[in-house]
């Protein structure tokens, strides 16, 4: 037996995971991302105060020396800590990818485990729609390389929710799972892409030869990471349907790294959920 939410990876699945990771790594390197590894264990204070309500899911413990430690919850906060410890890498940008285990004390369900494998890639140091488009294009290209031809990226901008309460935003984010207030349905129907998104869509089409409707689409119901993302947000849908469970997600987070530094440092990134992705591919 294994603890609840933890599992053995059988040979067929392990082989598919390795194959998928190798394909995505090659695709990302063609976009200029370089590999990085960080520890599974961080100081607890490094992780706390970064995830909002989800902080309660962090595995924390005290070692024999009395140090308060934690298993990493994701790969992004460790990246932020790494960047601040190595600011010389920003020249002026740093683009990296990383594969690793993350741990979350949540209730296990289909496709979600307490130990998960993430494949992240991020660019730090650039606040430009050009970089958002590059990350989105790299994710779509990687998805095509592993064989998911129908996958599409759902894209939105947190700016569209600036006049709504957190409660209303959360309700909109669940629009495909439950009945929501009629006035919020009307709000969603009237919502259009922001100027920022229009620029990103134009770059995706002109520079990366991607097409709206075929490779990506505007989703005014998408509202991920309310305590985390600051502008562009996106999720990858395996068959291009907004109501589907995503196989990865990301966006722009221009405040997180600044929590570790004494100056603002913009960033944008994406994370594949390798567990869910390989289950679909098998």
From TrEMBL:
* InterPro entries, A to Z: aa-tRNA-synth_II (IPR006195), aa-tRNA-synth_II/BPL/LPL (IPR045864), HisRS-like_core (IPR041715)
SUPFAM superfamilies this protein is in? Answer: Class II aaRS and biotin synthetases
MF terms in GO: ligase activity
Q: Which UniProt keywords apply?
A: Ligase
Question: Which ranges carry the Aminoacyl-transfer RNA synthetases class-II family profile domain?
Answer: 28-282
Q: Which family does it belong to?
A: Belongs to the class-II aminoacyl-tRNA synthetase family.
What the entry lists under PANTHER family is as follows: HISTIDINE--TRNA LIGASE (PTHR11476:SF7), HISTIDYL-TRNA SYNTHETASE (PTHR11476)
**Official protein name in the record:** Histidine-tRNA ligase
């Amino acid at each position: 037996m294994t603890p609840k939410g933890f599992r053995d990876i059988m040979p067929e699945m392990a082989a598919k995971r390795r194959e998928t990771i190798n394909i995505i790594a090659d695709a990302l390197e063609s976009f200029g991302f370089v590999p990085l590894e960080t520890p599974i264990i961080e100081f607890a204070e490094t992780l706390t105060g970064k995830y909002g309500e989800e902080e309660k899911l962090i595995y924390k413990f005290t070692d024999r020396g009395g140090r308060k430690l934690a298993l990493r919850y994701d790969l992004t906060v460790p990246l932020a800590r790494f960047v601040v410890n190595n600011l010389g890498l920003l020249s002026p940008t740093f683009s990296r990818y990383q594969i690793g285990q993350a741990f979350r004390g949540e209730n296990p369900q289909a496709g979600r485990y307490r130990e998960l494998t993430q494949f992240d890639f991020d660019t730090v140091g650039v606040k430009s729609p050009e970089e958002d488009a590059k990350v989105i294009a790299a994710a779509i290209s990687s998805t095509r390389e592993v064989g998911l031809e129908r996958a599409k990226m759902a894209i939105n901008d947190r700016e569209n929710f600036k006049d709504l309460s957190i409660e209303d935003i959360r309700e909109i984010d669940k629009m495909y799972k439950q009945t929501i207030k009629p006035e919020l349905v009307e709000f969603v129907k009237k919502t259009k892409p922001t100027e920022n998104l229009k620029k990103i869509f134009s770059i995706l089409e002109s520079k990366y030869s991607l097409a709206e409707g075929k490779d990506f689409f505007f989703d005014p119901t998408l509202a991920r990471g309310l305590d985390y993302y600051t502008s562009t947000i996106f999720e990858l849908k395996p068959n291009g349907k907004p109501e589907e469970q995503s196989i990865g997600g990301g966006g722009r987070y221009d405040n997180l790294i600044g929590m570790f530094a004494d100056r603002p440092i913009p960033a944008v990134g994406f994370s594949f959920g390798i567990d869910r992705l390989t289950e679909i591919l098998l």
